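User: Hey, quick favor. My workstation is busy. Could you predict this chain's structure for me?
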Amino acid sequence: MRQCGVVMSTDGDRAKVVMQRQSSCGDCKGCKLGSDDMSMEIEAINSINAKIGDRVEIDMEHQNVLAAAFIAYMIPLITLIAGVFIGSVLLDKIGLAQYKEVGSGILGLVLTGISFAVIRLKESSFKANKNFVPIITEITDK
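Assistant: No problem, here it is.
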């Protein structure tokens, strides 16, 4: 996935880049949004020593984008479904079948919340893993 943006600040081997949101972003809001709805600020590895104000091209491997999307969306969905299923079976087994719908729904939401909390706690390790961080690959004149 390649996109262009402008370097706003640098810090060691990282740079903050402001980019225009693409229509494929939809309403994800996974990135820090800028001052308007069409710009976003991301942190990227500054492998080419770009300076503030440089227009740069940023790249992230498609498989890494898919892995990040899986972590952000599929793991919480899987925990929601697992929580509902486990809650339903568990409440049947302990004789509280009359509370099966509410109880399994609550357990599903609790497990989903826990999965979001774990993902949030692991965010720093994801940022440290260079597979999940975009890389500045080129300074452009565009």
